[in-house]
Amino acid sequence: xxxxxAQVGLSYGDRPVLKDVSFTxxxxxxxxxxGPSGSGKSSLLNIVCGLQTPDSGTVTLGDSxxxxxxxxxxxxxxxxRSMGIIFQTLRLVSALTLRGNLLLAQKLQSGAHDxxxxxxxxxxxxxxxxxxxxxxxxxxxxxxRAAIARALVVKPKLLIADEPTSSLDAANTQKVASLLLELAxxxxxxxxVATHDDRLTPYFxxxxxxxxxxxxxxxxxx
Amino acid sequence: MIGLAxxxxxxxxxxxxLNVLLLTISVAMLILLLQLGNQASERFERDxxxxxxxxxxxxxxxxxILSSVFHVDQPTGNVPYSSLALLRRDPAVARAxxxxxxxxFRGYRIVGTDESFADLYNTEIAQGRSFDEPLEAxxxxxxxxxxxxxxxQLFVGSHGLQEDEGGDQGHDHAPFEVVGIxxxxxxxxxxxxxxxxxxxxxxxxxxxxxxxxxxGHDHADESEEDEGEDEAVExxxxxxxxxxxxxxxxxxxxxxxxxxxxxxxRIPSLINRQTEMQSAVPATETARLLSLLGASIDxxxxxxxxxxxxxxxxxxxxxxxxxxxxxxxxxxxxxxxxTRVQVFATVIMEGVITAFLGAIxxxxxxxxxxxxxTSSFATLSDLGLQAWAFEPMEGxxxxxxxxxxxxxxxxxxxxxxxxxxxxxxxxx
Lengths: 222, 428
Known about the structure:
The structure holds 2 protein chains of 2 kinds.
Chain A: E1 3-12, E2 15-25, E3 30-34, H1 41-48, E4 56-61, E5 64-68, H2 75-82, E6 83-86, H3 98-110, H4 115-125, H5 140-152, E7 158-162, H6 170-187, E8 190-195, E9 206-211, E10 214-219
Parallel strand pairs in A: 3-8, 3-9, 6-7, 7-8
Antiparallel strand pairs in A: 1-2, 1-4, 4-5, 9-10
Helix pairs in contact in A: 3-5, 4-5
Chain B: H1 2-11, H2 13-48, E1 53-57, H3 61-68, E2 79-80, H4 82-89, E3 93-105, E4 108-113, H5 116-121, E5 125-128, E6 136-139, H6 141-147, E7 154-155, E8 158-159, E9 176-182, E10 192-196, H7 197-203, H8 219-232, H9 236-244, E11 250-251, E12 253-258, H10 261-274, E13 277-280, H11 282-325, H12 327-335, H13 340-376, H14 378-382, H15 392-417, H16 421-427
Parallel strand pairs in B: 4-10, 6-9
Antiparallel strand pairs in B: 1-12, 1-13, 2-11, 3-4, 3-8, 3-12, 5-9, 6-10, 7-9
Helix pairs in contact in B: 1-13, 2-11, 2-13, 2-15, 11-13, 11-15, 12-16, 13-15
């Protein structure tokens, strides 16, 4: 399912945050969105996820309008049906166990549970033994993998990750990058990773850099 | 989303438990008041149906009604037996039912009366037959069930109207025989033991004219039988007969039904002014009793509703606090695809589930307390309170409590409804 970001602009008061940003991510393709803090990366990611309305432009995923300056968009439905989102901080619902979180994600997405998919995902991520743990009982690494599991068990068409390696060392950064690419490929999903961590650049064929609200494309060979 | 709401409630067990407890106490109080009020009113109405006037010894009219109609208090005294004939002769009186009280069997009152009692309460025999001979008794349905009595069994009454009151004053010389058990009536009759009033006189050694009511009964034979029985139970009867030789034929009270409205105007004043007796109108005394209780009941009811509202406020505060501390969670739910309405509904569900738990536990507590109270206090048991009877108003009350839970959750839910996930993400 193709993600199209067309001429998206956003300002906070008089300060422009995004300036006419456009890019396309083909189905099952992956891309890295690089940018330092304050570059407008998070705002762009919120718009792509349908959590924020742009001042101009449109975001579509397949045939669905995820965000539009006109305000006419089916953001909730598009997010629910097609996206798996991994945030840096908001990872799991605090009152539920890890398994409960994954079941809730599936329930919200399709109204049904797929326990087999949950088990296989937890095994792949190496946290099956922590499935009954509550979020506060998980280590930083486990919580990060749990957030990836939550995004994957809904069989997303587009997997979005925000700063997935911000607090990891080099070895773990490599592990997480490889894992995300592998899992997205296995799930048949497109992958968009937003980060300020340029250590991830070697792992992605497509890299975009956001600087002061303007997008610069760069094709990098892995 | 119900599962999620439950998970959030489990996540803060102490707060949830306290909120539930507040509602439980208020619901229990409200249901208790409702049950006691309604059942007492119904019971009073049922037991007094057909009784227009009660005639008894002078004293408290309320006490006369309580003792003679509801059988929960001591009688005011006795009236001459001749008053029965006096009333029955009056053209305005359709029925006058004699009552002779004084004894009990295992706490169940033994009521001396005649066949007019069966007419008044529309009693029907389930087993056996009605009392006819001296010392024959018919058990009310509850008495039969509780004592496990069988036809033909003998029992000995004790002096006094409550169990243990007479303690060692059993009428061993005059054992009764169970000759019948009544169908349930849903009235006080179910908890009475009926016999002839002459039997009550006999048991207490009151000599009387055996001709006036023992229809075709050969008293010479009876005396011989009595004497035979007396010999078998040592010397008690002779002593009692000797003591009772000076006693007069008396009744405890008379239950009067008017033939026409003129009776209601004339008879009470006639009795109150021209005799040593008093008359009391059950409807008036019952209304007086309920109005006396009414002020206290209203006060307790107001307190219970205030408690319920306090419970609602506690839910409100807890959920409002939750809306702030759990903002990230709720934003994540939106990110996961939950709609605003679903997140709103989760918070409303928390309020409603808390109220539901309080309502159900309160209902169980109230009915459980009635079970406990009726088994512990004879007076309540005598009122015939039904522990598990469901009043339609209980449904309204439970729904009101659920509404309190929902209303208490409205403002927190509205805050959650308006959460901007993007802003929350930016803050986090």
